[in-house]
Amino acid sequence: MSPSSDAPFELFIGGRDVPGTRGERQTLLDPSTNEPLVQAAVGSNDDARAAMESAERAFRESNWAADDGARRAKALFRLAGLLESRLESFALLETRNMGKPLRESRGDLGYVVRTLEYFAGLADKVEGASIPVPGPRLDYTIREPLGVTVHIAPWNYPLLLAVRSIAPALAAGNAVVLKPASLTPLTAIAFARLAKEAGVPDGILNVVLGSGAEVGEALISDARCRSVTFTGSGEVGQRIAELAARRLVPLTLELGGKGPVVVFPDADLDRAAKGIGYGIFQNAGQMCWAASRLLVHESVRDPLLERVRAIAEQLRLGPGTADGIEMGPLVSREQVDRVLGYVEEARAEGAQVVSGGGRATDPSLALGNFVRPTILSGVPDSARAVQEEIFGPVLTAGTFADVEEALARANATSYGLLGTVWTRDLGNAHAFARRLECGMVVVNEAPITFPQSPFAGTKGSGVGFEQGRAAVHAYTREKNVLLNLGPAKRKG
Ligand code: NAP
Ligand code: MG
């Protein structure tokens, strides 16, 4: 399947491509040119219901949940293998749809393969416990799949963030309904077809396209929905929490961030600068965990900023499919306006533009959604550019005089996803990591994670967690069984 083929991208329900009941289509644009890329179906409430029904039936009637986990493991390992063998075509599809450089898409797809393998390995290890209780009794627990789980994904890592929650849900024996972001549905559809090829029974993995407001809400509100995993903005996350609360459905919310990067005077400035550049300009800064808020000790501010500026100015911007490109376009025109709106507002509030600050200057990029890597300094802490998630290649740089000031400012936003600390003093690193109000802390490296490590936000960045062993448990219900084994026999 390639975006140039004539076959429209459709919904995937019950193991089949379906056009959607209303027969509506939308044209997706190439973010590097804003030329039409491909047509994709737009689903409706009725399609959401059909997907839920198909999932519920497959959960009841197929052997997916009932089989021993080793069979699910095999199917998921096969899926990982198939994806690995087609990694290049999936990466190309992701890049064409979303815009990021091909080498980043390859990395994302590699991460998807690894995630599938990790959770495949856990599919036959979903264990309960045997619990000592008084008397002639046996008490034990069973972990059962929940049933139909709903997953709503954003556009910044389209397949990666979908599979991050789908893989443990499938490993635990659930039937899944995924709604990808309207802007980036292509790899999710291709992935669902691949799952069928790998032997995942029809109806166990369904993909419904369509708007969040219609299809997303219909999925969560459906009586068959047993859990919701949402990755996206805080605003939509709150709405989803309200809908889930009405039905008392458990939920996981992975929301935005405003990651502090704290650089102490003893840090290796060359490494720190590279890490900072990567942490904000990778994926053109469209990352929940972007290291977007630099706080550097005043004694090393100038040498550090000079290094980061040099990195920003050397980054090669261009279409994600071209060779050697280091930063692609933003996903849409709306996103460009949003990002530059923050920059303009910060400027009006007195910020200095250390680098970038506008659209790409190369005329060959004029039609695409290209924004130059941007560094702002002197932005007041109260400014929206410091408090809110910009979701673009924009770093704000501030200074601190001592540890307490660094900590107070690092913690002074409503978010708490990932914080970064650069220092050679590991005692300081540990102490600081403990006091950071973040779900994740990285020391002396750019933001990084692995399928085996928990991924979680605190405060406005989310509820619950993903990844790690326990992620499989989050898609199970623990049942306690207590057996009375007969009258107690007295000794003697
Ligand atoms: P978004 O606008 O919140 O949308 C995310 C998903 O929710 C999309 O599939 C969207 O569908 C759907 N949606 C929208 N309104 C809905 C509703 N009322 N009910 C149900 N679903 C609804 O987020 P985005 O703009 O795609 O992504 C950017 C945001 O995601 C940023 O805030 C970023 O920080 C966050 N994010 C968080 C993480 C993390 O792990 N913490 C990772 C990546 C991104 P449509 O596409 O049809 O609108
Ligand atoms: Mg949105």
Give an overview of the whole structure:
The chain has 492 residues and is α/β, with parallel strands linked by helices. It has helices spanning 45-61, 69-85, 87-98, 102-122, 158-171, 186-197, 212-221, 234-246, 269-281, 301-314, 333-348, 384-387, 403-410, 426-435, 470-473; strands at residues 11-13, 16-18, 24-29, 36-42, 130-131, 137-145, 148-152, 175-179, 205-207, 225-231, 251-254, 260-263, 293-297, 352-355, 374-377, 394-400, 418-422, 440-443, 455-456, 462-463, 465-466, 476-484. It has a seven-stranded mixed sheet with strand order 14-15-16-13-12-17-18, sandwiched between helices. Helix 12 links the parallel strand 15 and strand 16 (394-400). Helix 2 packs antiparallel against helix 4 (102-122), helix 4 (102-122) runs parallel beside helix 5 and helix 9 (269-281) crosses helix 10. NADP nicotinamide-adenine-dinucleotide phosphate (NAP) is lined by residues 152-156, 161, 179, 181-183, 211-213, 216-217, 231-233, 236, 239-240, 254-257, 288, 389, 391, 417, 457, 462.
